[in-house]
Amino acid sequence: MAELTGELCNLCNKKTLTLREEEIDIPLFGKVYVFSMECSSCGYKKSDIEPAEKKEPCKYTLEVSSEADLNIRIVKSGEATVKIPHIITIEPGPAANGYVTNVEGLLQQVKGVIQFTMDSEEDSAAKKKAKNLLKKLDAVLLGRETLKIIIEDETGHSAIIAEKAQRSKL
User: Domain 1-53 belongs to what topology?
Assistant: First the structure.
């Protein structure tokens, strides 16, 4: 792993930014580079992944239908769109991160976004909708309900690593 410390942070202008680059081999996906930056002064964080080899644009679809599915590994690049129909769509953008996680980690992230939105919402109908989405996600995390996860990536740098995941061209 390569690491540079004492770099200038673009947010707080202090030399407390750490840059990291690591090459890892993900079974059934291949070698990837994991890039990250973190500022110890202001807390800024950004990460991304990039495969060592060029890939074709792709779309992965996974039906989460059991507790065991929560352990399925997900590789998401900063350029990927994540869709969970009827719950959320996460579009890529300048602040988008790439990461390696599992289905449970992704669903916990989504719960955090919905909880934050609900807490800052004043409209009671929107609050109720957010509460229902959180209940649905909790049921999925307990293996009592199903949902679909779709990842679309123009760069081909994302994957859902499971036999039951369907890969198609984008």
Answer: N-terminal domain of TfIIb (2.20.25)
